[in-house]
């Protein structure tokens, strides 16, 4: 399906900058003379911007063609990246990164809704696995290229480097006739005007949202300060920390495919439970490891299973959503994930300020286990 791969490649470009800001936190602290709290705002303010864009994105997915929404996401991302590349102070940096994340929900809601309509149920886990793998590839290649620029001509060039192909891909999307319709037209109905958020909030879906939120807090709490921990506590160079960070997301490609495989073999709920558990174990170990290679291995295992969660989550959301409410269901899920991802860095920064950097690990593990326990209350057989 040509339209499926257009959506997947767009996902790759959307995620190119996903973790760049987090990896650059030690650089931003030095170059812009920021406090740890200001550094947390570089991660939190864009996350809040993305958060508040989630619910409107659900309504937009029901009312505008996928082609227009994906094109808008690409153009906005490219132009905001150019703004970040020219940032001369903290506030311009935050503004540029925030605009960059503004249309990420527009892509995710419309893209995931489209896939949920295009793909047969028995192929859903596999297809979502490929979709997430392309996103992980985008994050990985973005960080690997960043490590090269950090070691040579500077971090600003990473934003200029990707802006051009993203702009070009945006105009290529406009030529895709298959994506020129709304999701509601693909299922043969336009009866979405009366659809409201409460209509998608079944008991099972609410339990899933709580599990997603707890897991997201655990992941974001550790991931936001991972490069800072490696640089400040373990004495890694900034480029080496970024390189490990990049390989972690590269491993995430395999993790996404693994999520699809596990989802097909054991069902989405069991696959998600296993992925969360196997994320918590290496994160617990990292709190006590000091050797370079052991830290790197533990982090890669953590990233492998952290990326295994997206395929079963997406499959479960697609199953639990009403047929005319796919867009709103995915936006509610992304909204929940965004709330948790926005709160976690500030909470973790407060704990670090009171104690020390080491506490990001128990902080994150506790929330991962809370997500795992919550998930067990969900009645879901697929």
Structure characteristics:
single chain, 382 residues, mainly alpha, Growth Hormone, Chain: A
Largest sheet: none
Report the uncertain regions: 187-195
Number of strands: 0
Q: Average pLDDT, to the nearest integer?
A: 81
Radius of gyration: 20 Å
Task: Give a concise summary.
The protein is an all-alpha fold. The protein is 78% helix and 0% strand.
Map the helices and strands.
Layout lengths: L1 H13 L5 H4 L1 H7 L4 H28 L2 H20 L4 H13 L1 H15 L5 H28 L4 H18 L9 H4 L16 H22 L1 H7 L5 H29 L1 H19 L5 H15 L3 H11 L5 H29 L5 H16 L7
Can you characterise this structure?
By secondary structure, the protein is mostly helical. Helices cover 78% and strands 0% of the residues. The chain is built from 18 helices and no strands. Helix 11 (203-224) packs antiparallel against helix 18.
């Amino acid at each position: 399906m040509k339209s499926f791969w257009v959506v997947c490649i767009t996902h790759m470009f959307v995620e190119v900058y996903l973790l760049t800001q987090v990896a650059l936190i030690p650089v931003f602290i030095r170059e812009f003379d920021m406090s740890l709290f200001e550094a947390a705002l570089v991660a939190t303010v864009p996350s809040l911007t993305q958060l508040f864009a989630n619910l409107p994105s659900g309504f937009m997915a029901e009312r505008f063609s996928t082609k227009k929404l994906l094109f808008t996401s690409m153009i906005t991302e490219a132009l905001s990246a150019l703004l970040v590349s020219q940032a001369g102070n903290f506030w311009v940096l935050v503004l540029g990164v925030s605009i960059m994340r503004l249309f990420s929900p527009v892509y995710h809601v419309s893209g995931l809704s489209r896939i949920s309509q295009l793909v047969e149920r028995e192929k859903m886990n596999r297809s979502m696995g490929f979709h997430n793998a392309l996103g992980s590839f985008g994050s990985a290649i973005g960080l690997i290229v960043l490590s090269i620029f950090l070691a040579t001509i500077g971090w600003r060039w990473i934003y200029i480097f990707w802006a051009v192909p993203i702009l070009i891909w945006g105009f290529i999307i406009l030529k895709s006739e298959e994506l020129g319709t709304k999701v509601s037209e693909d299922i043969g109905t336009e009866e979405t005007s009366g659809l409201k958020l409460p209509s998608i909030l079944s008991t099972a879906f609410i339990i899933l949202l709580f599990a997603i939120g707890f897991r997201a807090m655990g992941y974001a709490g550790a991931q936001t300060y991972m490069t800072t921990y490696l640089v400040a506590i373990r004495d890694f160079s900034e480029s080496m920390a970024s390189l490990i960070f990049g390989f972690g997301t590269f491993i995430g490609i395999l993790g996404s495919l693994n999520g699809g495989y596990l989802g097909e073999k054991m069902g989405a709920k069991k696959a998600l439970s296993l992925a969360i558990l196997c994320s918590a174990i290496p994160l617990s170990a990292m709190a006590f490891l000091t050797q370079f290679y052991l830290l790197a291995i533990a982090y890669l295992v953590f990233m492998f299973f952290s990326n295994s969660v997206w395929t079963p989550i997406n499959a479960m959301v697609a199953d639990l959503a009403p047929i005319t409410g796919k867009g709103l269901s995915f936006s509610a899920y992304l909204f929940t994930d965004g709330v948790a991802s926005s709160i976690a860095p500030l909470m973790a920064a407060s704990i670090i300020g009171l104690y020390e950097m080491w506490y990001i690990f128990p902080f994150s593990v506790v929330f991962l286990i809370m997500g795992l326990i919550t998930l067990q209350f969900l009645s879901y057989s697929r």
